[in-house]
Write a structure and sequence with these properties.
Shape of chain A: globular
CATH architecture of chain B: 3-Layer(aba) Sandwich
Distance between the termini of chain B: 30 Å
Strand order of the largest sheet of chain B: 6-9-10-3-11-12
Shape of chain B: globular
Number of helices of chain B: 8
Largest interface: A-B, 25 and 27 residues
Number of domains of chain B: 1
Oligomer: heterodimer
CATH topology of chain B: Rossmann fold
Number of helices of chain A: 7
Helix content of chain A: 10-25%
Structural class of chain A: alpha/beta
Largest sheet of chain B: 6 strands, mixed
Distance between the termini of chain A: 58 Å
Order of helices and strands of chain A: HHEEHHEEEEEEEEEEEEEEEEHHH
Largest sheet of chain A: 9 strands, mixed
CATH class of chain B: Alpha Beta
Order of helices and strands of chain B: EEEHEEHEEHHHEHEHEEEH
Number of strands of chain B: 12
Strand order of the largest sheet of chain A: 1-4-6-8-10-12-14-16-18
């Protein structure tokens, strides 16, 4: 007899008719859900984000499909609506749902979402205009982004604050020498449980680059799982979280260096005011044989409130020889020497604190090459700072 | 300008200054010399208003006001400047932005007109040239990756920009080679004026060959143990602090 279906799940699951190519992938996802259930704080990876408790008030009402919108599809990009899987083109059939069954959260979106979007960029097509995707409403939603060899794309994902629960499951396939820039903006969503799982596979010489802004939610969890699967594949991540009130934001990354000469860099800055909680868990695995891999990871948090909390957890697993891995994590207050220096030059204390706070965050935004994206990210920071600083005054 | 009377200062509960008395008038340049641990930097930080430096006895009066009641930023706006021994590095704040913010904060506090970005740039460029502070330094993050000499030149540039009434220079000569020392000294000398007082704190006589003081005070174990004219520096250099401090005791 099957175990009962967890509450982020619905009875519709087994009744849906699916194309043959998908039925096994979906069945695996259902099995994962049944065996693992909704993650809770006694599971190590979810220690700082108790999804089960956060979802209790929602009970079993969340089997809906969240809404997505793409206003403009630039030339060179193909958009496919995942609501009609029976008409899926080959590139969707090849990749959709393949990287979802291992973990509960993406398994839930694969099992439950009845829609989503898929984007495709053809071989050697470099699209300069960004694709903007808005995600809103309650429920589960899936996304697939496929860049063929040599392709280039910028994807700007905007998570709307409205709603009670949203689970976004994204699969990204970066072909050989292809480059994807993924910008994710998630403004503060105090009444929302917002979870997202992004599974990325990067082929030879390809680059996955992510720039994140996280404003927090009642519970916000972003899991980025990246596999650098061929020689010279790269991942570059930077992110800022700016939290106030009782908001929570968990950014969890896992970079898997599967092949040699792969590189990953991560720079995360968190500011937590009020009684908010910022979480960063960064796991790096260097597989056997992934020699000459280079991996750097920095995570820093500033606490603005006595009741604010930051949990930074770097983790390294190295099975290869001749690799470079550097990581650092630090939680603290603004630097007293810097504060004194600025005040001794006539800058009033509050203004000096503001300068240092912005300087702290700026480091993780300044490395964004695209000026428009940099400005958008910075604007999100500015919008979020007043809430974070309430308790600091 | 500055009147220090029987000053006792404790840092973390430990008394460092033990009855220091010193008076500087406008137009004068005084030097404080002393061995390591004598309390030189404690005096500098206390004057600038750093937290953790507690006056347990005595008083510091700056232009008729009790300095102890003023926040560091108020002291700066009222014309007190400390050139620091260890200028801090602040990533994420460009040097020029910092200078503009500080300059305008002081103007605002004094009820003066604030300067726009262009006026600040012109003003800074004019003063920067003499101190060989390059455009590149102004564009970089404050003190980040600056050499020891560059940091000290930037301190003196700030002194030139803020036009203080009382400038305290804490070990401005430390870590400088002879060319950098001359450059910094020229910058300091250019700011000597009948309306400005300076207090030069140093371990060595070297800087005082270039910035010649009107008066030298020798600080040892939290007290002034000897005083004299500029010739005292040479005596110290020749005979050492032990000799002078011992003679006083």
């Amino acid at each position: 007899m099957n175990a009962p279906v967890p509450n982020i799940f619905a009875d519709a699951v087994d009744a849906r008719s699916l194309p043959d190519w998908l039925s096994q992938r979906r069945a695996d996802a259902v099995a994962t859900l049944r065996t693992q259930g909704v993650p809770h704080r006694r599971i190590e990876e979810w220690k700082y984000s108790d999804l089960k408790t956060a979802l209790e008030p929602a009970n079993d009402s969340i089997a809906a499909t969240a809404a997505w919108s793409i206003e403009n599809v630039p030339t060179g990009v193909t958009l496919f609506d995942l609501a009609d899987l029976s008409a899926a083109p080959e590139w969707v059939r090849a990749h959709f749902g393949k990287a979802a069954a291992a973990e509960t959260v993406p398994a839930a979106s694969l099992a439950l979402a009845e829609g989503g979007f898929a984007l495709h960029v053809a071989r050697n097509a470099v699209v300069t205009e960004a694709v903007r995707v808005g995600l809103s409403a309650n429920g589960h939603v899936r996304a697939l982004v496929v860049l063929e060899d040599g392709a280039g794309l910028t994807l700007i994902e905007q998570q709307s604050a409205a709603g009670a629960f949203r689970n976004t499951g994204v699969e990204i396939v970066v072909g050989a020498n292809a480059r994807l820039t993924h910008v994710r903006l998630a403004q503060a969503a105090p009444n929302n449980v917002q979870i997202e799982d992004v599974a990325v596979r990067v082929a030879r010489g390809g680059l996955y680059r992510a720039h994140l802004f996280t404003g927090g939610a009642e519970l916000s969890r972003l899991t980025l799982r990246m596999t650098l699967k061929e020689l010279g594949a790269n991942a570059e991540l930077s992110g800022v979280s700016v939290l106030g009130g009782s908001l929570h934001a968990d950014v969890t990354t896992h970079v898997y260096h599967a092949a040699g000469e792969t590189q990953s860099t991560q720079l995360f800055k968190h500011v937590a005011g009020g009684k908010s909680r910022a979480v960063y868990q960064g796991k790096i695995t260097v597989a056997k044989g992934a020699d000459k891999s280079d991996s750097r990871q920095t995570a820093k948090a500033l606490l603005l409130g006595e009741r604010a909390e930051a949990d930074l957890k770097p983790e390294l697993e190295i099975f290869a020889d001749d690799v470079k891995c550097a990581h650092g994590a630090a939680v603290g207050d603004l630097d007293a020497d810097s504060l004194f220096y600025l005040r001794a030059r006539g800058i009033p204390e509050q203004e000096a604190r503001n300068m240092l706070l912005r300087a702290f965050l700026r480091e993780a935004v300044d490395d964004v090459a695209d000026e428009a994206i940099r400005a958008t990210l910075w604007q999100s920071v500015e919008d979020a700072l007043p809430r974070a600083m309430v308790s600091a005054l | 300008m500055l009147d220090i009377k029987n000053l006792h200062v404790a840092v973390g509960g430990k008394e460092i200054l033990k009855g220091l008395t010193l008076s500087i008038a406008a137009g004068e340049v005084h030097a404080i010399m002393g061995p390591n641990g004598s309390g030189k930097s404690t005096l500098a930080y206390l004057l600038a208003g750093r937290t953790g430096y507690d006056i347990t006895q005595g008083s510091v009066t700056y232009r008729g006001e009790d300095l102890n009641t003023l926040a560091p930023e108020e002291r700066a706006a009222k014309g007190l400047f400390l050139a620091m021994q260890y200028p801090v590095e602040i990533p994420g704040v460009t040097t020029l932005t910092f200078l503009k913010t500080a300059l305008n904060a002081q103007h605002r506090a004094r009820g003066e007109k604030e300067l726009d970005a262009m006026s600040v740039l012109k003003f800074v460029r004019k003063k920067a040239e003499a101190l060989k502070v390059s455009e590149d330094m102004l564009k970089r993050a404050l003190n980040v990756g600056f050499s020891g000499g560059e940091k000290k030149r930037l301190e003196i540039l700030q002194m030139a920009l803020f036009e203080p009434k009382l400038a305290v220079l804490d070990e401005t000569d430390s870590g400088l080679d002879i060319d950098a020392l001359k450059l910094v000294a020229e910058g300091v000398n250019a700011l000597r004026s009948p309306s400005r007082a300076m207090l030069v704190i140093t371990h060595y006589q070297r800087l005082l060959n270039y910035v010649v003081p009107d008066r030298i005070h020798v600080l040892a174990q939290g007290k002034i143990v000897a005083e004299g004219g500029k010739e005292l520096a040479h005596e110290l250099e020749a005979k050492g602090y032990e000799h002078i401090a011992g003679k006083a005791a």
